[in-house]
């Protein structure tokens, strides 16, 4: 077997196979780590066997072997860990092959995040008197920065891409919503929100999530979302807005026996 560094474009056919084999999608957090990884193509003579992705020279973010070569998966996996001195792995539970290979090694497991999908159940939460939910414009930028602080980088670019929404009650900005289009999945977007500190625990986040779900459904986009595993407040908000989770992101540590 030959393992060589490559570009994402060179393994796009393998990435497509990998994504099609997942039991559920993942959100922008894992996607960003994958897209900023270094890629390696695995070949048997001229045949493409699979690929792996390594983030920041220490974290494995993807490991895919085609079905016809999966009898070699355990050996190739261990070789990849040793050759690249892997210290950590991001393992989504929707990736059956990778989670199985990692569990084989009894690595230390830390729970990193929940990944959510649309429940496909309608949840009602209409806008009240004087309330509006709409795409943000550059005219909203100053108030967004004042209310949301460093929640995001480059608010102006989110606005320019048409991926940032504002939720007002009269002149008061209650919160913002985000729809970040996936670069890996077709017609899929990660949704998220930030609530003005003054209006927390008043159902603002729930309304934003419902409005984002509605916008996605009206535009033929599949919404997903995620939150840190121990952020119970975000988990409750997403669930109240109609999102459900069956997938976890595990942060595994390569430990020596």
Q: How would you explain this protein's 3D organization?
A:
This protein is an alpha+beta fold and 257 residues long. The protein folds into two domains: 110 residues, Aminopeptidase, CATH 3.40.630; 120 residues, Aminopeptidase, CATH 3.40.630. The chain is 30% helix and 35% strand. The chain contains eight helices and twelve strands. A twelve-stranded mixed sheet has the order 1-2-3-4-5-12-6-11-10-9-8-7, with helices on both faces. Strand 10, helix 7 and strand 11 form a beta-alpha-beta unit. The longest helix is centred in the C-terminal third of the chain and has 15 residues. The mean pLDDT is 95.
* Total helical segments: 8
**Gross CATH architecture of the largest domain:** 3-Layer(aba) Sandwich
Strand content: 35-45%
For the residues shown, what is the average pLDDT? 95
| CATH class term of the largest domain | Alpha Beta
What is the first-to-last residue Cα distance?
27 Å
Which H/E pattern describes the elements? EHHEEEHEHEEHHEEEHEHE
CATH topology of the largest domain: Aminopeptidase
By CATH's scheme, which homologous superfamily of the largest domain applies? Gcn5-related N-acetyltransferase (GNAT)
Low-pLDDT residue spans: none
Rg, Cα atoms, Å: 20 Å
Question: Given the C-alpha coordinates, what overall shape results?
Answer: elongated
- Percent of residues in helices comes to 25-40%
Strand order, biggest sheet?
1-2-3-4-5-12-6-11-10-9-8-7
Q: How many beta-strand segments?
A: 12
How many structurally independent domains? 2
Q: How many strands, what sense, and barrel or not for the largest sheet?
A: 12 strands, mixed
Protein name: GNAT family N-acetyltransferase
Domain Acetyltransferase (GNAT): 9-119
Pfam families: Acetyltransf_19
């Amino acid at each position: 077997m030959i393992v060589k560094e490559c570009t994402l474009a060179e393994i796009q056919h393998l990435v497509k196979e990998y994504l099609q084999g997942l039991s559920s999608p993942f959100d922008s957090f894992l996607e960003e780590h994958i897209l900023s990884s270094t890629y390696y193509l695995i070949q048997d003579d001229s045949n493409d066997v699979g690929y792996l992705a390594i983030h920041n020279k220490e974290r494995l973010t993807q490991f895919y072997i085609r079905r016809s070569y999966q009898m070699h998966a355990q050996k190739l996996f261990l070789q990849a860990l040793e050759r690249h001195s892997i210290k950590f792995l991001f393992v989504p539970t929707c990736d059956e092959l990778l989670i199985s290979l990692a569990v084989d090694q009894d690595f230390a497991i830390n729970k990193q995040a929940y990944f959510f999908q649309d429940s496909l159940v309608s949840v009602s939460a209409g806008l009240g008197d004087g309330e509006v939910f709409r795409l943000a414009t550059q005219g909203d930028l100053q108030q967004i920065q004042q209310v949301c602080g460093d929640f995001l980088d480059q608010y102006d670019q989110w606005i320019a891409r048409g991926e940032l929404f504002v939720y007002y009650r009269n002149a008061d900005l209650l919160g913002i919503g985000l729809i970040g289009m996936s670069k890996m999945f077709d017609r899929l977007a990660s949704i998220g929100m930030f609530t003005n500190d003054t209006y927390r625990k008043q159902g603002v986040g729930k309304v934003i999530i419902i409005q984002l779900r509605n916008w996605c459904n009206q535009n033929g986009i599949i919404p997903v979302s995620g939150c840190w595993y121990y952020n119970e407040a975000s988990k409750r908000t997403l669930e109240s807005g109609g999102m459900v989770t069956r997938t976890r992101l595990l942060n595994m540590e390569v430990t020596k026996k």
